[in-house]
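PROTOCOL LOG
Step 1. Enter all chains and additional molecules of the complex.
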Amino acid sequence: MTREFWVSVVVLVGLPVAAFIAHITGETYIINLLTRMIVLGLAGIGLNFALGYGGMVSFGHAAFFGLGAYVAGIAAFHAFDDSLIVSMPFELGGTNQMLLIWLIAIFLAAVLAFLIGLISLRTSGVYFIMITLAFAQMLYYFAISWPAYGGEDGLSIYLRNEFPGVQTDKAFSFFLLCFAILLLVLLLCWRFINARFGAALQGARMNALRLSSIGIAPFPVKLTAFVISAMIVALAGALYGELNGFVSPSNLSWHMSGELIIFVILGGVGRLVGPLIGAIVFVLLETYLGGLTDRWQFFLGLILLATVLFANGGIMGLIGGRTRHD
Amino acid sequence: MSTLLIAEQVLNGLQLGVTLFLMAAGLTLVFGVMGLINLAHGSLYMIGAFCCAFVSVETGSFLLGLVAGMAGAAIAGAVLEVVVMQRLYARDHLDQVLATFALILIASEGTRWVFGDVPLFLDVPQAFAGTVELVGGLTYSKYRLLIIFVGLVVALGLYWLIARTRLGMRIRAGESDREMIAALGVNIRLVYTIVFALGAALAGLAGSMVGALSSVQVGMGEPVLILAFVVIVIGGIGSIKGALIGAVLVGLVDTLGRVFLPSFFQLFMNSSDATTIGSSLASMAIYVVMAIVLAVRPQGLFPATGTSSA
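Step 2. Run joint prediction.
Step 3. Record the structure below.
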């Protein structure tokens, strides 16, 4: 067992324990904070799948995050006043069932990521960064200028959507639900990474030419990883909308894409649990630095800059030891 | 739709395009020569605007403000280059994106710290207030015309600098082979700092001039930065010519799209739907153009030659 493994175990056991203690002592605020860490961490894990393992530096994953959030928001909006989303050519109403919402969010994200990936993966390097950014900006401006769902003001989810057998409006129940999803996604990612597919994906990052010379075309492998990554991020986006009871174009903004990258880098690129640690640290900084000074982003910037310049490999690289070869 | 309106909107588009060119020129030079993707370029734009607004108000002279805006941004750029950017040249793009993203946070909050949350207002200089009549009864803002003129002069100046001077020769040489030019005894480090400061000064100039049209506030650089990235990606990263053509293209598509797309949709649907769809599509238009250009020509319209890093 590597040190990285044990660090991951500590984090994954520590989170529910902390939430349980907060639950007993009645600190709902703390539970929501922990849920926020998990949801953002989940989005980071999704991005890491493309960025860390596949080497695809996407600066536009906010598109999928926001898409997920808006699916939750729009479904709840129509379920709330019992109106139709589409009346032509078929009738489609809203829903407040989380499972259905997640399926729709994941499906739409997969379709969107497939289309974006199909075009973007033709490019590489800076061009890839910029074209993914451009696609996210398209969605962002669309959300701002489309008035039906609040435009710039965003959309409130008045009642948290429902999940069979779980009281989702209770903070601790919702935390456990999110945590269960996190574990499930981590397990899936771990299986993917250690399967043939994961080996091919990492091969595509390290040396695409060698990969194709042993008979595996890099493009479909990368595209698949890009789509999977987007699906995870959309699921996180839907949970994020539920958690805040509010979705807005800022979920789609390039600041969001930047924050997702921050989670990955802060925690450690290409480490399974790294982005979760990054998100935990980010939320802690945001909460406690933000409590000390209104100018917390100034210090966040300094910390990030120092991380990039001097601590290559992120927090997991510092405490978990080096494992990556490339 | 009258010819006068079209002409006026074309001029507006040109003015936006020229502003974008001032931003994009710095970005594309820095990328082409140093292989650095600099998200903090928008912060230099903002710093220029703040310096200009501050000095203009204190001295009452817009010209002095303009000089201060360029100088302030250039100094900030040079300091940034020496302290941070030099460590990033050898890193991969991911590190560059994140480090310069961090710089945006620092610059924005830092500026807010110094100047407060309230936007500053910068007046259009007296001599250029009001409108002027052009051919065919078209009246147009003098100040916007000035911006177009300045932008075109800068474009010519840059072309002259890069193609005709010794410094330009060194910049081009640094672009094609860093080791070789260093071995020939040129202080390539210094060339890098000069290129970066030059790009920053252009961003500061753009920020100062646009600051008088809108307000000078924190975060003003970000929308322009993203547009400038679209410009250099369309034009081909590293190419000044590409930046100029890309900038004018983006400026025109954005401006004309916002004006004409809603009326275009009015031809075949009711007026409120047409406005909604038209303005939604207009705000996406330049990104659509960019996606199309990249899908057809992944290296942009005018791929720079000789870049080893791209």
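Step 4. Note key features.
DSSP finds eleven helices and two strands in chain B.
The radius of gyration of chain B is 20 Å.
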